[in-house]
Specification:
single chain; alpha+beta; UDP-n-acetylglucosamine1-carboxyvinyl-transferase, Chain; 2 domains; 4-stranded mixed beta sheet; 14 helices; 23 strands; elongated; binds ligand EPZ
Length: 419
């Protein structure tokens, strides 16, 4: 099994381009299933989750080919309506293929994406929305069989009790070719939803309101192919900015998305970093010890502070001057990375959804295990700012969402090796 060996203490300094967005690429690859012509996706990150999505598409009879960060998907030969349990298990978010298969074939058989590193991953909102759209949904032994009662799904008015990203995506994917109009109330407003809708509109879909809480989709008979550039990854951006801030360095992040990162940047600025952005660049400089964040850091649906940035910001604040308080409101079990940070000398008290982080002078390098994707990235940040050497194992978690993280860190002058 591979691991990362990090020698801490270096100030990170340099310019790196931001990778394409994992949480946009995955639903857009599922959406390509709806098109009866070839789609070309640019700026697609080379990640294990993206390769899992391509295996699912190939299993459905589509043709998927990669050339660098460009993916070509031809779904004209799509024929299968079942995704194996093994393929579903490779990636938690494989459930977003349900809506796309229903939109394309009118039926599908998938598996329940079991609980994972972040706690249970229920899909009750997904299934309840599909039923409202005239889909017959049967669950037996962890497998879910869905079939449109007519030939196609029917448009419906759907109100989500929580602005679920995945449920919003699944409803959109099923609704774009449904009969009639679908309205989603309390829809997720994440930038990745807008990127998915941008792709679908490029394929001829009629969608409005994405980015707000009410999205309207007018069903059309079929979607044509298109060429589309996937948005930058705002969470990877937050990761490299937090990493640089923790090392008291400076970074220019190019191909970035300042607007989409605003909820994170407004908090990061409170640590005393100097942050400027223009067009697609973000500049950060933090020459001194970070200050603790005065206000409680509450993770919320967009445009609130993103839950995916909680662990990486915490890793930067464990050696800040003062005490910061986190409140994780999205997932039940998203503090697993605190154990590793405490092993490195951090002072963190977790009580339910609250984590109190008392800044210490210096972390010490240690041997730690990545617990999940963003928790693993947090350990890289901690290792880079610690005294001594850290070894991080189980780094397959990190490779799910970061394209060759060791190359980006080395480009910034960090002492890191994958062995
Ligand atoms: C997406 O997950 C992202 N994944 C997550 O990123 C991200 O943390 C999350 O949205 C929140 O922003 C992808 O886009 C591939 P949700 P998703 O449905 O869609 C509960 C990362 O690190 N819920 O918005 O699964 C759920 O349990 C990953 O890149 C129900 O109760 O998130 C959670 O507590 C991690 N019933 C909350 O809603 C449902 O039917 C938010 O989940 C669906 C969700």
């Amino acid at each position: 099994m591979q691991k990362l060996i990090i020698k801490g203490g270096k100030r990170l300094r340099g310019e790196i381009p931001l990778q394409g967005c994992k949480n946009s690429a995955l639903p857009i690859m599922a959406a390509a299933l709806l098109c009866n012509e070839e789609c070309t996706l640019y700026n697609c990150p080379k990640l294990t989750d993206v390769f899992s999505a391509s295996r699912i598409l190939n299993g459905l009879g589509c043709r998927c080919s990669f050339s660098g960060n460009t993916v070509q998907i031809d779904s004209s030969t799509a024929s299968e309506t079942e995704i194996s349990e093994q393929l579903m298990r490779e990636m938690r978010s494989s459930i977003i293929f349900m809506g796309a298969m229903l939109g394309r074939m009118g039926e599908c058989t998938v598996s329940v994406p079991g609980g994972c590193e972040l706690g249970p991953r229920p899909i009750d909102m997904h299934l309840s929305a599909m039923r409202k759209m005239g889909i017959d949904v049967r669950e037996t032994g962890g497998r879910i069989s869905c079939k449109a009662s007519g030939k196609k799904a029917k448009g419906a008015k759907i109100s989500l009790f929580f602005p679920s990203v995945g449920a919003t995506e699944n409803i959109i994917l099923c609704a774009v070719t449904a009969e009639g109009e679908t309205v989603i109330n309390n829809a997720a407003r994440e930038p990745e939803i807008c990127d998915l809708c941008g792709f679908l509109r490029a394929c001829g879909a009629e969608i409005s309101g994405d980015g707000e809480s009410r999205i309207v989709i007018k069903g059309i008979p079929e979607l044509h192919g298109c060429e589309y550039r996937i948005m930058p990854d705002r969470i990877a951006g937050a990761t490299y900015l937090a990493m640089t801030a923790a090392s008291r360095g400076e970074i220019i992040l190019t191909n970035a998305c300042p607007t989409e990162l605003e909820p994170f940047l407004t908090v990061l600025e409170q640590t005393g970093c100097s942050i400027y952005s223009d067009d697609d660049k973000i500049y950060l400089r933090s020459g001194t010890r970070l200050k603790a964040v005065r206000d409680r850091i509450r993770t919320m649906p967009h445009p609130g502070f993103p839950t995916d940035a909680q662990a990486v910001l915490m890793a930067a604040l464990v050696s800040a001057d003062g005490t910061s308080v986190f409140e994780e409101n999205i997932f039940d079990c998203r503090y697993r990375h605190t154990e590793a940070l405490v092993k490195m000398g951090a002072d963190i008290q977790v009580m339910g959804k609250i984590a109190v982080v008392k800044g210490i002078d210096k972390l010490n390098g240690a041997n730690v295990e990545a617990t999940d994707l963003r928790g693993g990235a947090a350990m890289v940040i901690a290792g880079l700012s610690a005294d001594g050497v850290s070894e991080i194992t189980q780094i397959h978690h990190i490779d799910r969402g970061y394209e060759k993280i060791e190359e980006a860190v080395s480009a910034l002058g960090g002492d890191i090796q994958r062995v």
